[in-house]
């Protein structure tokens, strides 16, 4: 080949276009960065001591009944009961002993604690069932009284306390057994749950509440009110409307104990697989940008038949809530994810 032809051939080779670069990988779905961020959120610490209700009731049970309880557990045909008892940490045993004594209906324990073994049937709304729900919710009662005491708002003798959204009375029944000096009121829009509670729980006065205010209570007629996992379901409008109603019925200087879902709840639900990645990402993004996100999860059938606008699953940050409760309320205590490592606890004091 001549020199000229070699030069031309080399030039032709240089003029060939380079191969196209590989296609970039597709971008991740929009929800993935949010899910990754909330999943990295540290697991919150939630104290789980016996608490005032568990300690007092456990100490009142005769030693013979506590010994009998261990016998009944070892003989129980229900493997979960034996497993729960065996796996319990030492600090959990007092509460568990009270609950299982009620479940096995040990006469001495029932007389000492005042707890009732009556349980709602499956057709009646209840927040928990089975051996660990016997006699009511001792854990939440411990939480309620522990943090009211920390806030300096322990109910005084003879005061009136409202369980707002009481269902079939899981907390009120324990509080009534522990504090028979209190006048206890319980309300809920679920008529079946209220009917059952009226028939089986003599320690409280129960009434059906409307899905919109007002309640059938006079102004400033209660000294304190608690609502367990109620503001975790109200959309923004109902949340504020019912806070105003609580301000009406709670006396000046009285208290309101509520629980809400925040970012820690999203993280817990995501880690446990209780929330789809798409939903977790959407809620997390809205909490960062808007501080509140409502999910309409009950649809046309309602929540156990109860239909109400703005009742679903709600996630809100304290940044959204706190400015809206002041100055009508003073914030006495905030405990982030202190209820079961999931729900935030907020205790408010009603200003004049």
Task: Write out key terms for the chains shown.
352 residues, alpha/beta, 7-stranded mixed beta sheet, two-stranded antiparallel sheet, 9 strands, 41% helix, globular
- Please state the average pLDDT score: 93
The helix/strand class is: alpha/beta
**Count the strands?**
9
Strand order of the largest sheet: 3-2-1-4-5-9-8
- Share in β-strands: 15-25%
- Output the number of helix runs: 14
Radius of gyration: 28 Å
Secondary-structure element order, as H and E? HHHHHHHHEHEHEEHEHHEEHEE
Task: Pick out the low-confidence regions.
Answer: none
Largest sheet at a glance? 7 strands, mixed
Oligomer: single chain
Overall body shape: globular
* Ends distance: 105 Å
Give the helix level as a range of percent: 40-55%
Describe the protein:
With 352 residues, the protein is of the alpha/beta class. The strands form two sheets. It has a seven-stranded mixed sheet. Strands 6-7 form a two-stranded antiparallel ribbon. Strand 8 and strand 9 form a beta hairpin. The radius of gyration is 28 Å and the shape is globular. The mean pLDDT is 93.
